[in-house]
Specification:
Elements (H helix, E strand, L loop, with lengths): L1 E5 L2 E12 L4 E10 L9 E5 L8 H5 L3 H8 L2 E5 L17 H16 L9 E5 L2 H12 L6 E5 L14 H4 L7 H6 L2 H4 L9 E7 L5 H13 L5 E5 L5 H19 L3
Parallel strand pairs: 4-5, 4-6, 6-7, 7-8, 8-9
Antiparallel strand pairs: 1-2, 2-3, 3-5
Length: 259
């Protein structure tokens, strides 16, 4: 556990290994706590990285993240999701990351850190593969997360074909189209109800994931599910995501304070 003091902000950065029975390993997780975490309890934002990333990505690329946590009075949790797509794979028994994220990790963080253990004080978001993971887990577990977001989300596994490691996690597209579809964010909308989650989605207009996000937005509108959707200039880059996260944090903090 490391304590930091920068300008008027103080915060704690904790690097831990969280045991996962589902995966048979311990998963590296970075936790950022604001000042007074020894005497107060705080809402939690789970922040997911993209493909080929790890638990350090967000802190490395957005160095002011600890100051954001302290200023906004939130705990930020960044797990190493490897290239798991944050789902429970029917092929790889050591790729059960839906169970890890939505059950094991949340339970561990609530037990070991000063959280407010209530879905209404818990949000999840991420970039690209992490955008998929955030919406996929939140849509499937609205009893765990009260708010969810996606930045440049790769939110339709069927559209990814066999790219980005999905062929290692899911049955082949030609043999099991249903299996690929059931692990898609779009597929999860069939059970989602309006106001079940506070949802924020954004994507750069020049991002290769933009058509996927347009489809998600239109589907949410058709189903009458309220959400914030923003399109800005930008591509699939850290410059875009670093800026985007500020809006997601603002959205989540407004949600947290409404209770």
């Amino acid at each position: 556990m490391l304590f930091f003091f920068i300008n008027s902000y103080s915060f704690v950065i904790d690097t831990i290994a969280v045991p996962s029975r589902a995966n048979g390993i311990s998963v590296n997780v970075l936790v950022i706590l604001p000042q007074d975490s020894n005497i107060q309890k705080f809402p939690v934002v789970y922040l997911l990285h993209g493909y080929t990333g790890n638990e350090t990505d967000w802190l490395t690329k957005k160095k002011e993240l600890p100051e954001v946590a302290d200023k906004k009075r939130i705990i930020i949790v960044c797990p190493d999701g490897k290239n798991s797509w944050y789902l429970d794979s029917p092929l790889k028994k050591d790729n059960q990351y839906e169970t890890f994220i939505s059950q094991e990790l949340v339970e561990y963080i609530d037990k070991h850190y000063p959280t407010i253990p209530d879905r209404r004080q818990r949000a999840i978001t991420g970039l690209s593969m992490g955008g998929h993971g955030a919406l996929y887990n939140a849509f499937r577990h609205p009893d765990v997360f009260g708010a969810a977001g996606s930045m440049s989300g790769a939110i339709d596994t069927k559209r990814q074909n066999a790219n980005f490691g999905l062929a290692l996690l899911l049955k082949t597209m030609t043999a099991e189209k249903k299996d690929w579809g059931e692990h898609s964010v779009i597929y999860q909308l069939k059970n989602l109800k309006n106001n079940q989650l506070a949802i924020i989605v954004d994507c750069g207009i020049n991002d290769f994931c933009f058509p996927l996000n347009e489809t998600l937005h239109k589907t949410l509108v058709e189903k009458g599910i309220d959400h914030d959707y923003t399109v800005r200039p930008g591509e699939h880059t850290w410059e875009y995501w670093s800026n985007s996260l500020d809006y997601h944090i603002l959205f989540f903090c407004k949600y947290f304070s409404s209770f």
